Structures are given as C-alpha cells and as structure tokens.
Amino acid sequence: MSSRQGPLPVPEGRDGEHGFVRILQWPAERSAMADLVESRIPRLLVVEAGAEPPVGADCCQDWMWKDGGEAELRLRLRQLALRALDHGRCRPYLDPLGILHVGLRSIPLPPKEQALVSVLLERFNEAVRRVDLVRAAWPDGINSDNTLAQRLSKLRSRLSWVGLEIILLPGNRYSLRAKLAGDGDGPAQTCGGFEDALQH
Q1: pLDDT in tens, 120-145
Q2: What strands lie across the sheet with 61-65, from one edge to the other?
C-alpha cells in the first residue's frame, strides 16, 4: 500500500455539512465531534502521527492514521458507509432544492411532499401527529380526510427507493424511519454505486 504525505484527498461531495461520510482531522477538529455524534453522521477520523486515536463511539465512526494512504482511505470510507447504512444510522436530509438525500441516494420531492417530509425529518424516528402534517402541507386545511392518506401513499413509494418508510402509529401519528436490513428496499440495499462514486 502506498503512503502519501500531507492531508489525504477527500472524495468529492463527502466533506460538506450534509456529506454522507464526514472526514475529520484528529485531534485538530475534535470540537466538531459532538455534533456529528448527535446527528448520527458517519465520520472517519484521520489521526495525526503521535496523537492518541479515539476510542469507543459507534458504528458510524472509524479512524485511520494520516499517513495510511489513499487506498486505505477509500477502503475505510466504503466499510464505514456500508456499516452505517446496514444499521440504518444515516440521518437523511432535505436540501434547499427539495431533494431528499439518504446515504448515497437522493430523490426530488414535489412541494407538498417536501412539507410533509420536513416535519417528519424534524422528529426522525419519533411520532408526529396527523394534525401537524396537515398544517405543514395544507395551511388552509384540507377538504377530504383522504387527501393526506393519498399523498402519504405516493410519498411512501418514493421513500422506499431510498430506504425509508413511514410507519402509522396509534392515535393518528406517523413516524419516518430507516428500513432495517432485510426489509425489502432497506438501507443495506441503497449502497449500490458506492465504489463507483469513490472512483470518480
């Protein structure tokens, strides 16, 4: 394995605020760790020579020595991404253009579905009241009780492709969650193209 001096190259699109795998220089960027852990964003720590590597954490975290080389960087990014997706630990986000990103997949959403998803994402894995969904997408109210159900049905089909599902809970409440591995089109199946993405 070849090694290289200086900062390791970061694959395009993966070091921004909403990138799929965030790369941190350790310990120089230690202060950014808490927010990433809380947000469950997959993170790879590139450790300076002589520094103490971090311990513990969760399936969303891995580390390597700074002089480990580009090949090791790509391998660890791939392993970290697959592990995080398989465990359903990648928090999705909706960008300003109305595109929903989940891991390496993304899908554009119509305005009404953007409004619904925004509310569900604010309480990801938690219960959201039906009335809150209606208010978000239809501030002036809806004429039929079937309106929300029909829109959610279409939204469920879209979300399935990116490994998410909307669960109906008792009391007219809903929850947006990542599908578990083995549940059809779950997060573990959204990994297609990861190696290609790293190589381009």
Answers
A1: 999 988 999 999 999 999 999 888 87
A2: 22-26, 43-47, 61-65
